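Researcher: I'm preparing a figure for a lab meeting and need a structural model of a single chain. I don't have an experimental structure, so a prediction will have to do for now. The sequence is pasted below. Please return the structure as tokens so I can convert it later.
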Amino acid sequence: MSSSIDGIDGIDSINPIEPVVIRTLRRILLIIIAASLAGTAAELLLLGHTETAIQWIPLVCFALAAIALVAVVTRASAVAIRAFQIVMFGCVLAGVAGLFFHMKGNIEFASETYPAMKGRALLWEAATGATPLLAPGAMIQMGLVGLAFTYRHPALTRRGYMTIKP
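Model: Understood. Here is the structure written out token by token.
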């Protein structure tokens, strides 16, 4: 038989640790991350999201993520996977910080524009303000997808980082 699959359990003869379906899903997750990185970075650059040092945080995260992604694609070693995990966790943290900065900026703008506005009205104005409040959620999502890619990755089992039990 010319198939690379041994038996009915979907185990690849080249990589007997991980089923073919899981490897395919990992590849799909990497494609989603790469597309998200490219699209979100391009959008931020087109919007001029480079005026302050804080606005550079997502772009720096995306650059680090792109480097880590290339390392994982070219050689999925335990070190590359761990580095990718760290960068993806950094993307999640940067996204959470971005939510805070966007909300803070919108509250400041709304307070200047409508000085008498307080409480819920001010929060609503800030949530629907000029700076898209949920835009940093894209970074959080990207980081979580990256962490999902690394979940129980076989490269982490080869050096004793993790044991997969049947």
